[in-house]
Design a protein that fits this description.
The protein has 94 residues and is mainly alpha-helical. The protein has helices at 8-37, 52-88.
């Protein structure tokens, strides 16, 4: 059975949710990195001034953190959108 394509409204909402989530997660993870390490997050992880361990640690924290944030927020937003959409639909004969 073919999967239905998401409607235009969800595509727009999903895109905006994704952008906001990525921005917020980056800010939150950067703040947490600063609190945990006492240093600002590395701007250029390829710079020789950033140790290999710090570069890898930052990449892991950002990668996992951003992915988890995207999954949680997208699933929550989709559930709420689907609930709103089902409330908005009027059943025939009423």
């Amino acid at each position: 059975m073919a999967e239905e394509k998401p409607d235009i409204a969800w595509r727009v909402i999903g895109g905006l949710v994704g952008l906001v989530t990525a921005w917020a997660a980056r800010k939150i993870l950067g703040f947490a990195w600063t609190k945990a390490t006492g240093k600002e997050p590395p701007v250029d992880t390829e710079s020789p001034e950033v140790s290999l361990g710090e570069a890898i640690g930052y990449a892991v924290v950002m990668g996992v953190g951003m992915s988890v944030a995207q999954i949680v927020v997208n699933r929550t937003a989709k559930k709420r959108y689907d609930a709103w959409k089902s409330l908005k639909q009027v059943t025939p004969g009423q």
